[in-house]
């Protein structure tokens, strides 16, 4: 994520799932057998949700050690490695006519599970999704326009929901 990115929120766009499916097939072809699963996560994956118009894609792999050919294949799809958190996540971004965050994480690891848990909880609990949308809108209205600050402020809300959901499932 580039620090100079600013925050703008959009109402839900029904094209977001279609854009995800289009990009999913391109990523699957690039990563091939190294890819375990790929999912649409984040606010653009929740129907009716206010969101930054950036599609979040979570790609699960058994290893985060990508070979040079895989990097080149992703680069050929206009992805740039933006952030590497050792043993947890590789973040590739695409900022063309379609903005995408591609989170490569360990398949069935904590980040993989939490990404799906968060998305599914928002999908199944419209009141929480609405509250989260209001929370994000409030951040922007109150002058949070720097991407890093925006993400930081959202994390406590997200982590509280994930912890609650994990406890309900007996995981936490």
Which key phrases capture this entry?
alpha+beta; Beta Polymerase, domain 2; 46% helix; globular
What share of the residues does DSSP label as strand, in percent?
A: 15-25%
Radius of gyration, Cα only, in angstroms? Answer: 16 Å
- Sum up the overall morphology in one term: globular
Helix-strand topology string: HEEHEEEHHH
Mean pLDDT: 90
By CATH, the topology is Beta Polymerase, domain 2
Under the CATH scheme, the architecture is 2-Layer Sandwich
How many beta-strand segments? 5
Q: Counting H and I runs of at least 4 residues, what is the number of helices?
A: 5
Helix content: 40-55%
Largest sheet: 5 strands, mixed
- Distance, first to last CA: 30 Å
Biggest β-sheet: strands ordered side by side in the sheet: 1-2-5-4-3
Please tell me the total number of domains.
Answer: 1
Based on helices, strands and strand pairing, what is the structural class?
alpha+beta
CATH superfamily: Beta Polymerase, domain 2
CATH C-level class: Alpha Beta
Low-confidence stretches at least 5 residues in length (pLDDT < 50)?
A: none
């Amino acid at each position: 994520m580039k620090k100079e990115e600013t925050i703008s929120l959009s109402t839900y766009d029904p094209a977001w799932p279609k854009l995800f499916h289009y990009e999913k097939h391109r990523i699957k072809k690039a990563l091939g057998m190294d890819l375990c699963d790929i999912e649409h996560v984040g606010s653009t994956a929740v129907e009716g949700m206010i969101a930054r118009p950036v599609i979040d894609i979570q790609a699960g792999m058994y290893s985060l050690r990508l070979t040079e050919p895989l990097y080149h294949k992703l680069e050929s799809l206009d992805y740039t490695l933006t952030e590497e958190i050792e043993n947890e996540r590789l973040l590739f971004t695409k900022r063309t006519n379609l903005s995408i965050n591609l989170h490569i994480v360990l398949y069935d690891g904590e980040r993989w599970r939490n990404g799906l848990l968060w998305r599914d909880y928002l999908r199944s609990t419209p009141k929480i999704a609405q509250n989260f949308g209001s929370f994000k809108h409030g951040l922007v209205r109150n002058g949070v326009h720097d991407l890093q600050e925006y993400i930081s402020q959202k994390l406590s809300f997200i982590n509280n929901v994930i912890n609650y959901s994990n406890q309900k499932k007996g995981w936490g």
